Amino acid sequence: MVVVQFDRSSGRNSNSSDEAPTWGNSQVGLYQRVSKGTDRCTVRRCTIGGERIQLSLLLDGHGGTEAADHCKLMLLDSFILACDGDPSVASMKSACSSAFQTAHRQVRTMQGSTSGCTAVLVVINEDRWACVCANVGDSNAMLVRDTQDSKPTPQFQMLCENHRLSDNLAEQQRIIAAGYNVGRAVNKGDRGKPKGPLRAYPGGLIFSRAIGNADCADWLLAEPHVSVTLLQPESKCLVVVASNGVWDVLDPALAAVLARRAKDVHTVAAALVQRATNDRNPYYTSEWNVPLDDTTAIALSIGPSARPTTLVEAERKKRQVRTINKVEREQETDGHRAALTLSIAISVLHLPLNGCSISRPPQQDSTTLHAACRSGLSVLPCRRRRSPPPRPTT
């Protein structure tokens, strides 16, 4: 990790010079495919300690929507309140943990609800060039670095930890060490054979960390995994936050390639959701290939304001050059073809090259002449220059 010294009074990197580029406001795009109606997301811009902050929150509810609805309304406010005017990286890390724990306690005390939700909170400090990501559950976020690079495989890194029990041995061991059970559900219709993903009991949840779920014991934690990424001030990056409806289907490397190809953040989010929906395994779909789970993606373009907001500028310029060359070649070919057609038309009509008048009306001309006219060339009648009258002799 790069160590950078910050000046709290200015909110800027003390090692940076006056020529360091200034980040503009982050560009945000959102796309969602609704099936169950349990995914929630929200974005917000705010100022903490005089520094510009971009917040993005994605929630995936289960067992009802009460937990996700509550977190959508309250979690960002809890984060801003916990920062207490301090925009430093350490303060934002602590505020993420405090906001998740507060939401967990509030949801668990809701009467008549045992719902829960996974959560991913991405915090971008645009004045410190810092990205803080906190998560519980199996939703994830990805950082695609230097989206203007023309390399075929972009550099990317996952920002979250997957708390699904089937994919996290450390969390399995933690729950078992605490005296609780981890195993697969047993369906009576399958002759008592365990089936499906790993679950923790009591509660039967497939995650080791989430918000809410009052029917689960104390093995369920709301303490988030928090990652900090300090970025170069001149680099332009892309952050993708998506529910498990995307990550269960798409490999992160493929998602990074799809994201970098898109022209803007709205297209990024749409491309990921649509590709995940089309490639989904039939096990996760009902009849007519309708997904059984919601699929949601948030895309954020971050970087210097001097850079264009579109992604992969180098590739776009290459495509423009290829298109221009192709058009020029087509124009040259069309011009050669049109000139050849006109030459044939003149030969068929026996028109003299030094100028003539067409005796027949245009509708009676040959089809070859009309083809020449349709190609963009015009055949105009030429008149001979009359000789001046002889001068009178004196």
Automatic annotation (TrEMBL):
InterPro entries: PP2C, PPM-type-like_dom_sf, PPM-type_phosphatase-like_dom. Residues 7-18 have a biased composition (Low complexity). CDD domains: PP2Cc. GO terms for molecular function: protein serine/threonine phosphatase activity. Gene3D superfamilies: PPM-type phosphatase domain. Residues 1-24 are annotated as: Disordered. SUPFAM superfamilies: PP2C-like (SSF81606). PROSITE patterns: PPM_2 (PS51746). It holds the Pfam family PP2C. Residues 33-302 form the PPM-type phosphatase domain. SMART domains: PP2Cc. PANTHER family: PROTEIN PHOSPHATASE. This is PPM-type phosphatase domain-containing protein.
